[in-house]
Design brief:
Helix content is 33%, strand content 17%. It is α/β, with parallel strands linked by helices. Strands 1, 2, 3, 4, 5, 6, 17 and 20 form an eight-stranded mixed β-sheet that branches. Helix 2 (20-31) runs parallel beside helix 16 (439-459). The two termini are 33 Å apart. Bound molecules: NADP nicotinamide-adenine-dinucleotide phosphate. The site of NADP nicotinamide-adenine-dinucleotide phosphate has 25 residues, from helix 6.
Length: 538
């Protein structure tokens, strides 16, 4: 369908985004017999995995906990090739899902939604695309992801560089060759930590500009053989059941013991074991108090710091790579494959911008207070306007023209993170204040819960659903209190809404549900089983 055809088109539902969330949501809406249209800014399906094609991009969730569980046939058909799937394989998987269920016929690509306005009289949303085309629907689903609004650094001359310059989240679709090149990378978050070891293998010279180091731990990725994959397939019911029971919906579960109650030698052995294991065990399966107790957190931070010192040959460089302003696990832990060893290479230089601040991007490279670093290529691994950024980039207006961005100026207001206060029939897949963690498991929960809500509305001939103010107040306060109990609340990160590259994003806001995923599942189930009395219907 061309934008012209879409003019004034009306559907039962519109979904914004054709990533993991939008794909699943469309599948379920089809089952309900609803007409639906997905508008996607990219030229194909995949969302995060469509945009993030930088070298080294891969899962940090175990692949076999990542896929959709809604189709037995799909589970049987698809073989993961690695325990932590690389981006090309994941994109292939999502394309397979779209093809297998013939989803593309309801998707319109290269169609960025710029506005969504509620029409009270018609009980419907009208969305406007960048092209100016419009479409309307009774229900509007946001499937726009939590890390989909990339931000460039606020540095003078950011457009001045005369060579190629890429944000990792807007990576070219053709291979980028670093051979013989002098490459500059700004940022040392999870993205940079995956990309740096890969670029270092090829580039003539790689210079990394670090503002704050991150605690990172080894991923320990490996291939999955045919027989192993067959065995995994037989265990899928057990794997998904376990993920639904853990606090973060990963396969990993915390150790109930308290750090300092465990004798030091035993503690050390436990951490050694976790550090040597694949995936998030060192973070998610650690002692239960590492993210709430300062002394416990200091002990695990000390363990990880020693690991960094062992792995990085130059003690001065090692010291620079060890965070001093926050403890281990209080920002999302990047999982790495040879990140620290990359700094042992002769062609890799770490520049601490606290010692020599970046003054400007120049046509030739990056000018710091002491020198001008010349490059052939620049890479901005500078992150995202997290969680609410993608919402802010769409002009959502509810009844009376109220703007979502203004209502959320001090932080989101939702019930269960599924519906925003004062915005009828706006359903958020993976919205702010929902449980997240292992993203596809959270997406799946959200989609299934919202599908249940639509089914309920159909059975009761309701056309409009919205939140109740008292419930929103209760949920918002609970979510804020839960976040503020954690040590992570004292740390600036995208998770707390801080991004110094955006005006006004210097004050921390609670953007996620930081309680236990299992409790969240129970709560949302109770609301559904109780007939959604916490919502208002017409
Ligand atoms: P990020 O964690 O926000 O990191 C951005 C980096 O850029 C930070 O090191 C930041 O420094 C730096 N930066 C930003 N502006 C700067 C400036 N003006 N000057 C100097 N440095 C600047 O973003 P990300 O690495 O893209 O990761 C975001 C999230 O994506 C992760 O936390 C994770 O949830 C997800 N992710 C997941 C995977 C996976 O394995 N599945 C991979 C990549 C990313 P400061 O720290 O000082 O702000």
């Amino acid at each position: 369908m061309t934008p012209r055809d879409t003019q004034a088109a009306t559907f039962d539902a519109i979904i914004v985004g054709a990533g993991i969330s939008g794909i699943h949501q469309l599948y379920r809406l089809r089952e309900l017999g609803m007409s639906a249209r997905v508008f996607e800014a990219g030229s194909n399906v995949g969302g995060t995995w469509y945009w993030n094609r930088y070298p080294g991009a891969r899962f940090d969730s175990e692949s076999w906990t990542y896929g959709y569980s809604f189709s037995e046939e799909l589970l049987k058909e698809w073989d993961w090739k690695e325990h932590f799937s690389p981006q090309p394989d994941t994109l292939e998987y999502l394309n397979l899902v779209a093809d297998k269920f013939d989803l593309r016929r309801d998707m319109q690509f290269d169609s960025r939604v710029t506005a969504a306005h509620w029409n009270d009289a018609a009980t419907q949303w009208t969305v406007t695309l960048e092209s100016g085309a419009q479409a309307s629907a009774r229900f509007l689903f946001t499937a726009i992801g939590i890390l989909s609004a990339p931000t460039l650094p606020r540095i003078a001359g950011v457009d001045a560089f005369r060579g190629p310059a890429y944000h990792t989240g807007r990576w070219p679709h053709t291979p980028v060759d670093f051979t013989g090149k002098r490459v500059g990378v700004i940022g040392t978050g999870a993205t940079a930590i995956q990309a740096i070891p890969e670029i270092a293998k090829q580039a003539r010279q790689l210079t990394v500009f670090q503002r704050r180091p991150n605690w990172a731990a080894p991923l320990h990725n490996s291939k999955i053989g045919k027989a192993e994959m067959q065995a995994i397939k037989t265990r899928y019911p057990e794997i998904y059941a376990r993920c639904s029971e853990t606090p973060g919906w990963f396969i990993h579960e915390p150790d109930p013991r308290k750090t300092l109650e465990v004798p030091p030698a035993e503690r050390e052995a436990y951490w050694e074991k976790r550090y040597a294991e694949p995936g998030f065990g060192i973070w998610m399966a650690n002692f239960s108090d590492i993210l709430v107790d300062e002394k416990a957190n200091a002990a695990i931070s000390d363990f990880i710091a020693r690991k960094i010192r062992q792995r990085v040959k130059d003690p001065k460089v090692a010291d620079k790579l060890i965070p001093k302003d926050h403890g281990f696990g209080t920002r999302r832990v990047p999982l790495e494959s040879g990140y620290f060893e990359a700094y042992n290479r002769d062609n890799v230089l770490l520049v601490d911008v606290n010692d020599t601040p970046i003054e400007a991007i120049t046509p030739r490279g990056i000018k710091t207070s002491d020198t001008e670093h010349e490059f052939d290529m620049l890479i901005y691994a500078t992150g995202y306007d997290g969680v609410t950024g993608a919402f802010d980039r769409i002009d959502f207006r509810g009844p009376g023209g109220v703007r979502l961005k203004e209502v959320w100026a001090d932080g989101p207001r939702t019930y269960l993170g599924q519906l925003a206060e004062g915005f009828p029939n706006l359903l958020m897949v993976l919205g702010p204040h929902t449980a997240r963690g292992n993203i596809p498991r959270a997406v799946e929960h959200s989609v299934e819960w919202q599908t249940g809500l639509l089914r309920f509305m159909r059975e009761h001939h309701y056309t409009r659903v919205e939140t109740r103010p008292e419930r929103v107040a209760e949920w918002t306060q609970m979510v804020i209190a839960a976040a503020q109990r954690l040590l992570s609340w004292n740390v600036d990160s995208w998770q707390n809404g801080v991004n110094r590259n955006i005006d006004g994003h210097t004050v921390r806001r609670v953007l996620g549900y930081n309680g236990n995923g299992k409790q969240y599942r129970i709560k949302t189930r109770e609301v559904a089983e109780g007939g959604y009395r916490e919502f208002q219907f017409r």
